[in-house]
Design brief:
CATH superfamily of the largest domain in chain A: Acetylglutamate kinase-like
Oligomer: homodimer
CATH class of the largest domain in chain A: Alpha Beta
Order of helices and strands of chain A: EHEHHEEEHEEEHEEHHEEEHEEHEHEEH
Radius of gyration of chain A: 23 Å
Structural class of chain A: alpha/beta
Number of helices of chain A: 11
Helix content of chain A: 25-40%
Strand order of the largest sheet of chain A: 3-6-2-1-9-11-12-10
């Protein structure tokens, strides 16, 4: 008994049959005596189809109109889901982001939620209704529809949970939970019963992709108890909780991110502020730089290497090339065939065994580590892409993460 | 130079190519120095597809959620049209019914516009923008999305014209204008340059179907100057104006409505209030009754015949059958194979020649007139359906409505 927020992604409501199945699950949750608020994504490929329509009309569709268009996707899925729940005899109402009081920043295509005015939500809940909310969207101060960008529906669900002080936020997706490694790549990968916000954040941003980092950050900030479960089974999923509630484990998982590229500027004059200026320019253009290494070359010049996501690759390269010319650097190298292999787990920073095992294993396999970065809970190595998968599978065994037999 | 409201129906924006063509027409209107506000329907078959989705989920979808679903159709078309106009270098903004301040009654699926709060509209026009408004939809006092039912987008355009005191309201459709008779049925049918509100109202409600009666009624009430034109050509279309601006013509057109059925109650006890009670019940269930005849049979009983639209047919029949049993009428007859043939034109009522010619012509053709109704501007005859088309073609000649050769 309590207030449960659920989130269903696009594949969970991808067709009429699936919408009906989701409706049954929601009805069941309500029948157990819970108040239920549900955030829903657009059906299946709807968003992609809408994007194609827009691009057929305008090479770079104006952002405000783009959001106006995309927001219809969730409006379709919430109304259909509400109909399906009503067909099961439950009182239900669907709300657009605007009707739900989801106030966002002004910017289109990647707005951030500023607040949720819960008046209408509480009114409908007070009348005993299940409330179905359009994920991924909100409204800005101009009364214009905004969308939240990647991971938007997860973020909607977590923000609703925080605003309503929900007892639990359940994220339904097409996988069973969070694994020690990508099960498509590591046969013996094992589903985790629990993981900490920080750990899952590393797993997510490093390619596990079950939850978007911004939704996890929000959940951590407001201490929203999260569960990731499959909408196609009754398996219990993975709980995401505070680290102090977790059993002490050193390494919890291995993640691999293929979607990165490495950029290197050779022979950068060694003057104060040179690196700062480069990374400022990249930041201004919203290019997210990840791992950075600066290596002293000779007395007067350095090499600077950094990695970016594939999607920022082209922009980063053009900014860097222009900058290199300005400051008189020797040249810019570009390597798209790299990947980032990470060992994740609370306590890694204080455990020298992990680093020793990691570097030792890669060395045994003859794999060259191009860059290294570490944090409290992870050690990441940039290696060449063809070697990444083999390394991940090997490390999964070395750290004894697997189940005894493939699940 | 002035403020022009345009309306484009679903077929006019049925695909990307057509949307671009409509955008060109709108851009041209703006380039001539006009302020432009556009009401748009959903693309092509979108609404039908959404209805099918809903019915696949719920046999009788809850009306509020139905409107939530249907309203996405126009939201897609306005955003795409705005993108297409922006691609031509014009400042433009799309507005949903809610954003446009279109306040409606509470009822879903067939709401009526109560007022338009023009604040946002005037703001955007003041900034020099073309404004694209979602037709067919509004918002009620609960902040819920409503739809206006049949003819909704025409009504939106006319209501916007009235609220903004527009200089002209142009209704773009897939025909050239309003004809003396349906050109698919009468080869020599001729396009009218002008017609009065009252006349077009008779033509529309009698099957000409270019404009929905409610939009014409609204235009007449607020004296909105209407033009009906094709979105596929540059032909001037048909102006709809006050009768006193029209040249004196007796008969302006012939219309034929196939979508009616006749219901007759045989031997109704002749007591005061019996007919009233029947038509009250039908009205309560929103069945629109058209022509009515009550014929004295013997001293104590009458027959009552009336016609209804095909869509109300089943409901009307069940209400009438139940009522007939209650009052002890003999039986109920039902004839779906009838049609309504009308001769329309200002001044018909005062011109006995018209009636004489009409009845004489039908008699020559050996056609039996089952019911007759008249108004200031029309004479309608209910005849058997197989005879309707032949009669219309003949009358079109008799009243010399045709062009000398087919257009």
């Amino acid at each position: 008994m309590g207030l449960i927020v659920q989130k269903y992604g696009g594949s969970s409501v991808g067709n009429i049959k699936r919408i009906k199945r989701v409706a049954e699950r929601i009805a069941k949750t309500a029948e157990q005596g819970n108040q239920v608020v549900v955030a829903v994504s657009a059906m299946g490929d709807t968003t992609d189809e809408l994007v194609s329509l827009a691009r057929a009309i305008h090479p770079d569709p104006p952002h405000r109109e783009f959001d106006m268009l995309l927001a219809t996707g969730e409006q379709v899925s919430i109304s259909l889901l509400a109909m399906a729940i009503q067909a099961q005899g439950h009182d239900v109402i669907s709300l657009t982001g605007a009707q739900c009081g989801i106030q966002t920043t002004q910017v289109h295509k990647k707005a951030r939620i500023e607040s949720i005015q819960t008046g209408r939500l509480n009114l409908e809940l007070g009348e005993g209704k299940i409330v179905i909310v359009a994920g991924f969207q909100g409204i800005n101060a101009d009364n214009d529809i905004t969308t939240l960008g990647r991971g938007g529906s997860d973020t909607t669900a977590v923000a609703l949970s925080a605003a309503l002080d929900a007892d639990r936020c359940e994220i339904y997706t097409d996988v069973d939970g969070i694994y020690t490694a990508d099960p498509r790549k590591v046969e013996t990968a094992r589903k985790l019963d629990a993981i900490s916000y920080d750990e899952v954040l590393e797993m997510a941003s490093l390619g596990a992709q079950v939850l978007h980092p911004r939704s996890i950050e929000l959940a951590r900030k407001y201490q929203v108890p999260l569960v990731v479960r499959s909408s196609f089974s009754d398996n219990p999923g993975t709980e995401i909780i505070e680290v102090n509630q977790l059993e002490k484990v050193s390494v919890r998982g291995i993640s691999l991110d293929d979607n990165i590229a490495k950029i290197t500027i050779i022979e950068v004059p060694d003057r104060p502020g040179v690196a700062f200026a480069l990374f400022s320019r990249l930041a201004q253009e919203h290019v997210r730089v990840d791992t950075i290494i600066q290596s002293a070359h000779r007395n007067t010049v350095n090499d600077i290497s950094f990695t970016v996501n594939d999607e920022d690759n082209e922009q980063a390269l053009s900014i860097t090339t222009a900058y290199a010319a300005e400051i008189g650097a020797e040249r810019v190298l570009h390597d798209p065939d790299v990947c980032k292999l990470s060992v994740v787990g609370t306590g890694i920073a204080g455990n020298t065994d992990v680093a020793a095992k990691l570097f030792g294993s890669l060395s045994e396999l003859g794999i060259n580590i191009q860059m290294i970065s570490t944090s409290e809970i992870k050690i990441s190595c940039i290696v060449s892409q063809p070697e990444g998968l083999k390394a991940m599978q090997h490390l999964h065994d070395v750290f004894e993460l697997g189940s005894s037999s493939p699940e």
